[in-house]
Amino acid sequence: MANTHIETKVLQEGYKPENGQPRILPIYQSTTYQYESSEFLGQLFDLTADGHMYTRISNPTTACVEQKLAAMEGGVGAMLTSSGQAASLMAVFNIASAGDNIVSSSTIYGGTLNLFAVTMKRMGIETRFITPEMSAEEMDALFDDRTRLVFGETIANPALTVLDIEAYAELAHRHGVPLIVDNTFATPVLCRPFEFGADIVTHSTTKYLDGHASVVGGCIIDSGNFNWNNGKYPELCEPDESYHGVRYTEQFGKAAYITKARVQLMRDFGCTPNPIGMFLLNNNIESLAVRMDRHCENALKVAQMLEADERISWVNYPMLPSNPDHALAKKYLPKGASGVVSFGVKGGREAATRFMDSLKMAAIVVHVADARTSVLHPASTTHRQLTDQQLVDAGIGPDLVRMSVGIEHIDDIIADIKQALDQIGG
Fold this sequence. Notes:
Order of helices and strands: HHHEHEHEHEHEHEEHHHHHEHEHEEHEH
Largest sheet: 7 strands, mixed
Structural class: alpha/beta
Number of helices: 17
Strand order of the largest sheet: 1-7-6-5-4-2-3
Oligomer: single chain
Distance between the termini: 57 Å
């Protein structure tokens, strides 16, 4: 069946058993594969035959999950990685080298910001950040002939700003570069960035896609829509001597980008996912659509409750009419804006800490986006490596509490929040 809904894709895409085969995706827990001839193996290494060379590069279990994720986002191919950070690194490094630069939204996950601003800087790749107050002219001034891409997050972590995907895509394409969008918080259930002009999508599959805090992973998905033959990307168009002179755009067409990422970067970096982990990820993706419905429903009710409580100084959730990104949320996220809500407790950092310590059901964990409600204070944990100015640019204040609203009964979640607020007075 063509053009099925996302609720069907999470269950039916990827692994498709044939007559007499297992109903559930098998785990191919093998590092290597056997071949009938050395000639065929040589063809695999020449990239002229389909098959698996070595599990560091590809694996049958992993490949089925990749096919599912590509179908969910509407792309031509996907590559799973060992973590979301690995996906961000390889998505950029696939088309950027020393001496190049990239343009990124400043309101992105602290780990990604640190990857771009510190680690990739050591690799010779400069990151130029778009801050919220920049004019169109100032954004255009960030680009030059060594700019390779634009990067942003559909829903920023933890600032929860909503990316104007169409505007960023227009900006990127006007300068002849692709737009890469991290779609972790939205998932393809809530938003599919390719439909708004994005070219590459990344995920930390550790978050909602897994949804149970059980498997760390990441993914890169290629739309197949960007024209790499525009003179800016010789690594995709000129011969790759490490594969006997293959030209990726010539041999793999729309899948040139994702093929190069796999056979070159995954081969060399080895950020390989574990087949057992990918089996678990596949199982958990099957409930993604129903989980996201409940996450969004519960988060909105929590945000509304917090907004009405005088002990809360501010609430940030894109689906609230008072939110500055509410119009963007209605455009890009009509089904909801995930289960993550951020807010400030009156009394600042000390009050926020006492509130978190007083919660009985919600857990303090360095994680977000699983089935159970959790909280975190980003300024002192996940984003503590950032400078004060970087924290401001990322939309993070000292009083910010990030709550990942789970799928428990909403009455129990709200009761836990209220009793914790009662403990700090006010």
